[in-house]
UniProtKB/TrEMBL annotation:
GO terms of molecular function: DNA binding; DNA-directed DNA polymerase activity
InterPro entries linked: DNA_pol3_chi, PolIII_chi_sf
Record-level GO BP terms: DNA replication; positive regulation of DNA-templated DNA replication initiation
PANTHER family for this protein: DNA POLYMERASE III SUBUNIT CHI (PTHR38767:SF1)
Pfam families referenced in this protein's UniProt entry, alphabetically: DNA_pol3_chi
The name this protein goes by in its record: DNA polymerase III subunit chi
Gene3D superfamilies: DNA polymerase III subunit chi
Coiled-coil region list: none
Superkingdom as given in the UniProt entry: Bacteria
SUPFAM superfamilies associated with the record: DNA polymerase III chi subunit (SSF102400)
C-alpha cells in the first residue's frame, strides 16, 4: 500500500524539496518530482547549484528517453511522463492529486505556507482518505 506523507508549512518549498530529494537519492530511491513548469525549472537550477558533495544526479522529464530511463531523479511538470517507468517515490509539489498514486511506494506531498497551497493540500488529504490510504502529517517548524 502506498505511504503518503504531507510535509506541511514549508517556508522554502524548493530548498526543502532539494533536501528531501537528496535524502531519498542517498537512500537509493528512484524519484519522480512533479511541479508546475516554473517550479521544475527553479528546482533544476537549485539542484545543479548544490555543493559538489551534495549533488544529486537528475534530469528533466523532457530530456531524451534514454536519459530519463537511466535517471534516479526525474523532474517534470507532467506526471504522466513517469507512469511508463516505475518510480519508488513521487515528490508532489503541485496542487493536484496524482492520478497514478497507487503506482508509488511513497508519496511526499510538500506544502508551502501559502493559504492556497494549504487548501489544495486539504483536498488531496481527503482524496487519499477516500482512496483508503492513511496519510501522515509532518509539521515543518520554521
Amino acid at each position: 500500500m502506498t505511504e503518503v506523507a504531507f510535509h506541511v508549512n514549508v517556508p522554502d518549498l524548493l530548498g526543502y524539496a532539494c533536501r528531501l530529494i537528496r535524502k531519498g537519492y542517498l537512500l537509493g530511491m528512484s524519484m519522480l518530482v512533479v511541479g508546475d513548469a516554473r517550479q521544475v525549472a527553479l528546482l533544476n537550477k537549485q539542484l545543479w547549484s548544490m555543493r559538489s558533495v551534495d549533488f544529486v544526479p537528475h534530469c528533466l522529464g523532457s530530456e531524451e528517453h534514454a536519459t530519463v530511463v537511466r535517471s534516479a531523479v526525474v523532474l517534470t511538470d507532467d506526471e504522466a511522463q513517469g507512469q511508463a517507468r516505475g518510480f519508488d517515490v513521487l515528490v508532489n509539489l503541485s496542487g493536484n492529486m496524482p492520478s497514478a498514486y497507487a503506482s508509488f511506494d511513497k508519496i511526499f506531498e510538500v506544502v508551502s505556507v501559502a493559504d492556497a497551497d494549504l487548501e489544495a493540500a486539504r483536498q488531496r488529504w481527503r482524496a487519499y482518505l477516500q482512496a483508503g490510504l492513511a496519510p501522515k502529517r509532518h509539521e515543518i517548524q520554521p
